Amino acid sequence: MLEYKCLTVGKKLSCFTATIRSHTGILGQRESGKEEIIKATFRLIKADGEVKLDGVNILGMKDEEFRKILWTKISWVPYDVMQLFNPIYDVASHFVEIFISHGLGNSDYALDVAREFLKILGLNPEEVLKSYVFQLSPLKLKKTALALALFTEPEHVLVDDIEYGISEIDQIQVVNSIIDVMSTTSSIFLISDNDPAVLSRVADHFIVLYRGEILEEGDNVLVDPLHPYTIDVLRGYVAPEGYLSDGCVYANSCYYSSVKCMLKKPEMIKIGNRVVKCHLYPNV
Asked: Which of 19, 45, 258, 104 is CA-nearest to residue 278?
């Protein structure tokens, strides 16, 4: 189980707390703080709080301990997938290196497993494995990164911005491939994106993030949203960010904003099977 306990990154992420039990989507626009969640999880930036995997705080691990669980228990697909590859080695070498360095088997076994995942993702395994990353199209490279993150079947796979660097048509193919692979592996996905249409297809649980704060969370958030920010995003309207008030982080852009919203921070309110942080729901 992956748990976030008041994860904080400067002023960009404020006490992010969540438990990832099923395929989860984080909906957030640019500068929402979703990028910091993934970077902190993989120890790329300094963060306060805890990121627990099976009860062990990742942020407190020694480097050698973290390297043991990277790829085998938790893996990622960054928005720029080139971060995963060394351009001087062919694609096959990347799969082999992960398998051998973690004691999972020899090179032949590694490539056999890699072929299976590349097939599931709709790629020609022999073509991809003998290629160098600069020889692959953006679509093939994105799918290859997914295969690399999945082929050891880690407990959790984190994906950042599916659509980055690919066309809208290719984005649909990638989403379909993720759906296909979800049915063949036990890995639980945590996917952050700014497109609710993408998240609605690949996630069962949703977290809405704005300016570093969770505004709404639940299973049916994208079907029946409660927070004004979520409603705005779903209808395609995102107001320009104003200055931060002492109250709600969305107060200066919200149609329903009041003096109370400007001056007092709302608390997280439980409504049915979800929670929302908004003064519109004071008596629930």
From this structure: 258
- What radius of gyration do the chain's Cα atoms show? 20
Give dist(CA 76, CA 84) in Å, integer. 9
DSSP one-letter code for 266: P
Distance (Å, rounded) from C-alpha 37 to C-alpha 9?
A: 8
CA atoms of 280 and 283, how far apart (whole Å): 9
Laid out side by side, the sheet with 2-9 consists of 13-20, 2-9, 48-53, 56-57
214: which DSSP letter?
Answer: E
H/E stretch holding 283: none
Distance (Å, whole) CA 114 – CA 242: 47
Walking along the chain (284 residues) 10 residues at a time, the average pLDDT comes out as 96 95 92 92 96 96 95 94 94 96 94 96 96 96 96 96 90 94 94 94 96 95 93 84 83 90 93 93 66
What is the amino acid identity at position 162? I
202's CB contacts (< 8 A; 6+ apart) are 23, 25, 175, 178, 179, 182, 189, 191
Please name the amino acid found at residue 1. M
Q: Are 56 and 50 in contact (CB under 8 A)?
A: no
Name the H helices within the chain.
34-41, 63-69, 91-101, 107-120, 125-129, 138-150, 168-182, 196-202, 228-234, 259-263
Spatial contact of 259 and 245, defined as CB atoms under 8 Å apart: no
pLDDT at site 282: 72
Look up residue 77 and give its amino acid.
V
